[in-house]
Each structure stands twice: as C-alpha cells, then as structure tokens.
Amino acid sequence: MKAMKGIWKLLTAAGLALGLAAGSLAADAHKHDHGAAPAKLELNNGKKWATDAPLRKGMEAIRNSIDAVHHEVHENKLSAAKYGELAKKVHGEVEGIIAGCKLDPKADAQLHLVIADILEGVEAMEGKTKKVKRQAGALKVGSALEKYAGHFDHPGWQPLKH
User: Fold this and answer.
1) Which residues are CB-contacts of 86 (< 8 A; sequence separation ≥ 6)?
2) Is residue 138 in a domain?
3) Are 145 and 65 in contact (CB under 8 A)?
4) Contact 53/155 with Cβ under 8 angstroms?
5) Model pTM?
6) How far is it, in rounded angstroms, from Cα 65 to Cα 87?
7) How do residues 23-57 score in pLDDT, each as one tens digit?
8) Mapping DSSP to helix (H, G, I), strand (E, B) and coil, where does residue 155 land?
9) Residue 99 falls inside a structural domain
10) Is residue 35 situated within a structural domain?
C-alpha cells in the first residue's frame, strides 16, 4: 500500500513536470521574438518603418473596429459586453499580425512596442485590469493606432475620426 502511494506521487509529479514543460514549449512556439524590444518607439533614420500586407490588413481591421464604436467610447456608453466583443476582435487581429509577420527585425522590434500598447488596451477592455476602466483600454488602443501611423509607412491609412 505504501509503495503504491509512492508510485502515485511519482507519477503525479512526473505528469505535472511534463505538463509544465509542454506548456512552456507551446508558449515558446507561439512567441514572436526577434530579440529585445527597444525602450521607445523611434523612426528608421528619420523615416517611417516599412510594412507588409498582413500588418496593414490587421491594423486596418483594428482601426475599423475601434472607429465603429468611437463615439460610444468617448460618451462612455459602450457596455461591458460590447467592450468584450471589441477586445476579442482586436486580439484576433493582433494574433493574425503576429502570425503573418515578415518585417525586418528592427521594424518588428518597433512594432512590438505598438502591439504591447494594443494588448494592454485589450486587457483593460476585457476587464482584466481592475485599476483601468474598459473605456481607457479602448482609448489606449486608439493611441497605439496613432503611434503606428506616425512610425510605420502605411499607404492610405485613415486616422480615427474625432
């Protein structure tokens, strides 16, 4: 009986270790990293960074999603459920951008700063950031879009309506 308990403890520990290792490997497989991100968003020797089609498509979709509820956000009339839907859409677009990324490593590192701001906004819109209102999350995404427009060459980009 005592030996069986020992075996079960060993199997449980091994299973836990294997589960943690698999989770870590899965996270690494989905990680999008070309090195450490720079400390601040910068231009490319005074010029905007090049973009590619997947990035432009995803950023336009994020912009359109935010623009569609812009007035409700500013008037603080968007429900928690609608913020949740918006967060889900934006997060899905970010995943698509990351999956299709073919940017130069330096441009990619700059994009990470914009994506980090967008994802902070998504977390707030989801209600995961207790000290930050959902409205502030949507505004954070809007601000990140403005940073993107100022630092990345995106022909035909339309700023958010104010």
Assistant:
1) 65, 66, 69, 78, 125, 138
2) yes
3) no
4) no
5) 0.76
6) 10
7) 333 333 334 444 555 679 999 999 999 999 999 99
8) coil
9) yes
10) no
CATH of the domain at 112: 1.20.120
**Ranges of residues in the chain whose predicted pLDDT is under 70:** 1-38, 162
State the Rg of the chain over Cα.
20
Residue 8: strand, helix, or coil: helix
Residue 9's alpha-carbon distances to 1, 2, 15, 118, in angstroms, are 13, 11, 10, 43
Residues ≥6 apart with Cβ < 8 Å to 118: 62, 90, 94, 140, 141, 144, 145
Token pair, residue 66, equals 């935010």
Do the beta carbons of residue 111 and residue 8 sit within 8 Å?
no
Range of the domain at 53: 45-162
Question: Tokens 């700059």 belong to which residue?
Answer: 110
Residue 36, in any domain of the structure: no
Q: Distance between CA 1 and CA 120 in Å, rounded?
A: 52
